[in-house]
Design goal:
Layout lengths: L1 H25 L7 H15 L9 H15 L6 E2 L2 E2 L4 H14 L8 H4 L1 H11 L2 H12 L4 H12 L5 H8 L4 H26 L8 H25 L4 H26 L1 H32 L4 H12 L3 H10 L8 H23 L4
Antiparallel strand pairs: 1-2
Helix pairs in contact: 1-2, 2-3, 3-12, 4-11, 4-12, 6-10, 6-14, 7-8, 7-13, 8-10, 8-15, 8-16, 9-10, 9-14, 9-16, 10-11, 10-14, 11-15, 12-16, 13-14, 13-16, 15-16
Length: 359
């Protein structure tokens, strides 16, 4: 009971911080409202932990706090004592992929043989719906070529491990989700550059072979090492599986903050419109993925899975590709926005499906 009161007090304090921040903004002091907005998100993130139905949003709210800090104080997230923090992005992606590898095994690919129809539909939808929707949305906007290319890039990326968690919460087919994620990730070094060269090449110059090598370094090698470690330390797999998701979450947060700081000026100019476009991209992935699966007469459980796998992309990998291209402040913006946004929409979708019986 005491803990519940503490969480309630924190939420009330969060509301007060937000009210004060908004009031200062309306009075023309938006530049000094930053600490209040940051405090609001921090208090909200902690307060949500006290409610079982809401605590899943806590991580995303922490991301918003970090992004707000990066927007108000970008210099702190660009360089540290002469070291350019953007140099951390690729190693962090490799660490995240290593973590993915430690949670994988050969059994994850058994689904290809057990449920080939669902796997094939899932992977094909993954590498057709989102890239084509990204190209369509990018073509309909007046964004600069590099920012438009970022919208296409996030569409060409595979799904990430967050989709597996959301699939589980949505009562989807977890085995199918893991198989599609694993297979799509391993195909990414080939499919993502080819799709970017085809669709993104009309906006910016894309070196397909260089991108293939960059993704190979960021994906295949770390995942391979993770698989080896998983096999060597299988008696301690529970410890690894508890630690690596936390490391991955922290890594994604750092990546988003660095990109936000680097692209701050562009975000302040086009932020609302970019959020709208990215939202449409994300939601169209869920919708089209679900109905294509229904068209091929998959079960309701598999349809939910395909929808989530298509709608949720690996924003971290897309950010790493943008960094390797030397365009983190422009091409990297859409992936940075997509990541936190998909966690919100995915959580809402999972909550709705969780309460809806599978027929």
């Amino acid at each position: 009971m005491i803990q519940k009161r503490i969480y309630t007090i924190l939420l009330i304090a969060a509301a007060c911080s937000l009210s004060w921040a908004v009031a200062r903004s309306f009075m023309g002091h938006i530049d000094t409202a930053g600490p209040l907005f940051i405090l609001f998100f921090v208090l909200l993130a902690i307060g949500l932990r006290g409610y079982a139905s809401l605590k899943g949003f806590s991580y995303t709210v922490v991301i918003f706090a970090a992004v707000t800090a990066a927007l108000y104080y970008p210099d702190y997230f660009l360089e540290l004592r002469g070291f350019t923090l953007a140099a951390l992005i690729t190693p962090l992606i490799q660490l995240i992929m290593f973590g993915m590898g430690t949670s994988m095994s050969v059994r994850d690919f058994a689904g290809v043989a057990k449920m080939p129809k669902g796997v094939i539909i899932g992977v094909v939808c993954q590498f057709t719906i989102m890239p084509l929707m990204g190209y369509t949305l990018a073509s309909l906007t007046d964004f600069s070529p590099e920012i438009a290319a970022g919208i296409i890039l996030i569409g060409c990326a595979p799904s990430g491990m967050a989709s597996n968690v959301i699939c589980y919460l949505a009562k989807g087919n977890l085995a199918l989700s893991i198989t599609v994620t694993s297979l799509g990730t391993l195909m990414a070094p080939f499919m993502t550059p080819l799709l970017m060269g085809w669709l993104g090449g009309s906006f910016i110059e894309v070196d397909v072979l260089a991108m293939m090598w960059d993704i190979f370094k960021m994906v295949i090698i770390p995942i391979g090492l993770g698989l080896v470690v998983n096999r060597m330390l299988r008696n301690h797999s529970n410890i690894i599986n508890r630690i690596m998701p936390l490391v991955s979450m922290a890594g994604i947060a750092v990546i988003i903050v660095i990109i936000t700081a680097a692209g701050r000026d562009s975000l302040l100019t086009i932020g609302p419109l970019l959020i709208l476009v990215v939202s449409m991209h994300n939601l169209s992935g869920y919708t089209l993925g679900y109905w294509v699966a229904r068209l091929f007469r998959l079960s309701e459980q598999d349809c939910r899975t395909i929808a989530i796998e298509v709608g949720m992309q690996n924003g971290g990998l897309a950010s790493g590709i943008a960094k390797e291209m030397g365009k983190i402040a422009t091409v990297g913006l859409a992936p940075a926005v997509f990541g936190p946004l998909m966690n919100i929409t995915g959580s809402v979708l999972a909550s709705w499906w969780h309460r809806k019986p599978i027929t």
